[in-house]
Specification:
Length: 503
Amino acid sequence: MREGGVSVGSATATGRRGLRSSTVLSMALAGVLGALLVAVAYRFELAWEAPVSRLRLVSERTRDVLADTQGSIRIICFMDRNHPVFRPLSRLLRGLRQASRSVAGAELVVEYVDPRWDVARAGQLVGWGVPENALVFEQRPRRRVVVTLDEMLAQPSQTRLGELPEGRASGSGLGVFRGEAVCAAALAKLGRPQEATAVYWLLGHGEARHDDYDELRGFSDIAREMRRDGYEIRPLSLPGRPQVPPDCQILAVVGARYPLAGEEVALIEAYLAGGGRLLVLLTPQVTTGLEPLLARWGIRVTPFVAVSPRTLSGLETVVSRFAEHVVTRDLRNASVVFGQAACLEVADLTERPGEAHRPEVTLLASTDEDGWGEAEPSALPRHFDPLREPKGPVAVAAVAERGGRVSKEVAYRPGRVCVVGEADFVMNGTLAVRASANRDFLMNALGWLAGIDAGSSPSVGGDATLVTGFTRREWLLFMAGAAGVVPGVFLALFLLFAWRTRR
């Protein structure tokens, strides 16, 4: 059929060829445009994340810290945006900013500085002494806390923080990202008075040393955690001193193996009477000379060692029974692992009924009912002797406070004592190989002694999955979407084009 000298079939065929050509050209142009968009996004490091994850929700402990911290705080992220940890770190910072808006506390402002592009700002940070790949928490006037990437990456048990080969700590992404706990500690440090909390570490009686870097028996790791949380550790030898230093806010006796002299005990008792704070980490079955003083504070040290069927290798004791107290309120569903911890009891104080300020004693951590106090812990296998050994639950940590009920309007500082039946539960070797709450238990105890009652529990949500960006359930949803939804969309578009072409 011809109309006006032109074949209708020829025109239709020509139109179809034109439609196919235009469709192919459109798809080619769309591909070129997509490639250009990807190139631009790569060049300017643009990123978009679907809000499918709950990782921006930080833990309750971090929210409490934000509520207790007042004023405006600027967080400067000094990191290359191509760094493998930048993505989880940016998620964390958005979570902190979102949490700060929901509590009546600190107002957070986040600033990102890429050393490759923000040369002027990077030079200023370097002038402040800030290393690359670090966070700067800044609160005016001129208060800064710097957190490095090494501090935010908990390395495997074989390698401790700060001892990685060159280049691995800040670039490999090895280890567990624990940035939320570290950032919460930095925010808490800004919320405290500007001067550091002085912790005097007693020496001269075979105590553990805070500057001992031995991988197994040293205590340098927990000392670093203390300094990170705003404590300043100072060695102290009491002989020849008229008193405990007046600026001592916490006196720590860690693993003493020889008795203190009577004069030293008298100085410590006078220090406590004036509102001092004492931390005692015992060496089991060793007499330190502090036992009578602790008994007057309501804590009796027994010669027994706590054991329990709840153990990891047969020698440790796993404790997850905690009393209601500030020190333990954030340790629900957590466990503290002890090797050999001395059993503690509440001392009988009825012989001094006229005392004005009777100490209030709380047994913080205890074994379950199946545990007991072992008289001969070196004898294996261990068996409970009901005739001479105390039946469980037996306590391995206790606190006492005298004057805590005095009205806060009165300028009175109550004395506080914390006793743990073992020092080795926070030595380097234990912290490196135990996935437990040992570190948090001790840091909470230090916070209570210092008068900082906010707990120090680990993150309950963000850190464990921030590196990948998804939980297991969210990974399954993502894989289902990638395998089904995305191909389905392209298939539907192809069918639509085919249908339109056929018409």
